[in-house]
Every structure is written in C-alpha cells, then in structure tokens.
Amino acid sequence: MTISKELLDELLSGVERPEDLLGDKGLMKELKVRLMERMLGAELTEHLGYEPHGEPASQQANRRNGATRKVLKGNDGAVPIDIPRDREGSFEPELIQKGQTRIDGMDDKIIGLYAAGLSTRDIRAHLEEVYGLKVSADLVSRVTDAVLEEVSDWQNRALEPVDPIVFLDALRVKIRDAESRQVKNKAVYVALGVTAEGEREVLGLWIAANEGAKFWLSIMNNLRNRGVEDILIAVVDGLKGFPDAINAAFPDTTVQTCIVHLVRHSLNFCGWKDRKAVAKDLRRVYQAVDDEEAAKALDDFEAEWGTKYPSIAPSWRRAWQEVIPFFAFPPAVRKIIYTTNAIESLNRVIRKTTKTRGSFPTDDAATKLIYLAIRKFENTGRCVREWVAARNQFAILYPERFNR
C-alpha cells in the first residue's frame, strides 16, 4: 500500500518535536489506536451486516451497542482501545480477541527475556523500565508456562529410524526438590543425535535426581518407543554400566567412550608441570593405527609414567573395551567420535543460559529454560563439518543398517 505525500503532509502537520511523533501521546501511538478501532468497527459491520449509522434488516434484533474501553499492553506501553459491542454479545473480534491483554508480540518478548536467563522478577523490572508496563508475576509465569506445551510436543515427537551417531551426556543444575524443599544438584540428561544427512538434532532432555545407568536405560527405551530402531555409534562418558544400558535397548550399537573425557580424567592425576608431557604421550595411544599399536603405546606410557602416576594407565585399561572400537574406524569417522565436543558445545549454551539463575524452583522451570537454550543452539547451525566423508564410510561399514 502506498501512502500519498498529501496524506503524509496532513498527518505530520502538527509534528514539531520527536515526542510529537513517538511519545506516549504522539502521532504513531494514536494512529495505531485509530487503525485498530477502525478495523474492529469493520469486523462488527461484517458480523451485523449493516454499516455504521445504517439500518439493520427489519427482522434483525441484534444491533450496535456502543463500545467498551480495554487497555492492552504492547511495545508502546499501555494502549487504550475502544472495542465495539453488539446487543446480543455474540461479536467476537479476530483482531483483539476476548480475554486478550497483550499485543505486538509481548509474549515473545517475555519468552525471549526468560530464555536469556532472566528471573520473573527481572522480567517484570525490565518491562516496567523499558516499556512502562507493570505486569504481574502470574502473567509472566502463564506466558512462560506456554512453553511447556511446546516442550511436550517436542519431547514426544517421532524420530528417524536410524541415527549414525548419538552423543549422550548429563550436566548438573540446582533445582529445589518438591518433597524435601531443599535445593539439590539434579542431573539433566541430554541426547544429541547426528542424522544420516549430517544434521545435529537434540533428541530429548530429561531431569532426574541422579545420573545413573538405570535412568539411561529408560531414556534408551524412550528413544526406541519414539521410532529409533538403530544407533550405529553411541559416544558416552565413562559412567559405569552405561554400555550395558545402551546395548539392552540397542544390542547392535557400538559404544565408544569419549577419548577427551579419558584424557581429562588422566590429567587430574598429574602435576601441572607434567600435564603437557603426559597429554603428548597419551596422544600416541589414541592416535594409534589400530588397537594393537594402541595397547603397545599404553604399555610404553606406563613404563614412562607408571611410577610417578600409577593411576593413569589402569584407568585406560578399565575402559579399554569402550576405547578400542575407536580404532576400527577410518579417520573421517574418528574425527567426529573422538570427543563429545558436539554435545559439550550444547552444554556450554545451556550453562551460559542457566548460570544467571542460582537455582530453579521446580523441574518445570528448569525444563522451560533449558529447552529454550536447546532451541537457540539448534538455530545456530546444525550441520556436522566434513560429514560427506564420514557418511560414505558409514555406507560402506554398515551397508544394511545405514541405508535402511
């Protein structure tokens, strides 16, 4: 729609200062109000079937019946709107629906502030300071609670039948326990899949009191019930019983311990002055051509460092059955499963969002914020780098499973 110069000149004829245009009583706000009231009037005309100041059909009892003043909250602060009425009360406008109290995407602003980690109190203060809006804590809670419906749909959505790689991890978040009313460190479980097209997809999030293999088994069953038929490689940390939990639901899945987790765990045993040297010698283990060469490199490492740091080599041997699958894969696949960096980058996004909150009052409050962080993470770019080479290797290594 093109607005003529003559109309613009007429509208701006009384505008001399910026506040005359943009202020609380300025032209822009008044124009918005007038336009909305004009549209509401047109809706009522459509509903009743006759124009303002016109006459309804002879047998028609329902007529115009004045207007009701309603104050809406929007980007411009409080906006008073006169909503036209009919005698029978059957008019339900589409532009401003019954019960509506906000316009201009105010709900999206509240959710955006919540996703940034602001508390309910912080959101209320921000809206009052920036927009001059006084909103109740109950309103903020109701708006953010709408996210839970989206979470439920997302958490129960159908999944692809095959995930070439799934990264599994848990992080800790402080949440007030419903029964004891004490703040506890609860485990937030996250499953991040890589699809056959090389796209990262968060398969779900779950909250429990503790991280354990038993709960991981319930998560594996959840993925199976939602359509996952096969996982080629599951990359995990060193949690005891984790491989059994995965293979109970997906017997053919190769479970791979995160190499970086093992290295970091090893470095916890040595002094700062030796960390670089120890890390360099451990690199010979996980960069070996095959498992035999890796075992020999671990023996050499123990001969060099075993006396000074006797705990490192045994920790690798205890996890050896979940380390050696790594050596059966070509470089293109090794590069992706070498570390849980993919899921650790997700965890960084979650921690950045949650760090401003000392604790959460409920599991639902934590779920809402973590889901919004996940949504932000997935919008930043979902493709795994250099996936084409890895995909070709998967097609050769798992011809029937990968191409089902």
UniProtKB/TrEMBL annotation:
Signal peptide: none annotated. The keyword Membrane does not apply. Residues 49-71 are annotated as: Disordered. One of its GO terms (molecular function) is DNA binding. It comes from the Bacteria. The keyword Membrane does not apply. Keywords: DNA recombination, DNA-binding, Transposable element, Transposition. GO terms for biological process: DNA transposition. Belongs to the transposase mutator family. Required for the transposition of the insertion element. This is Mutator family transposase. It comes from Planktotalea frisia.
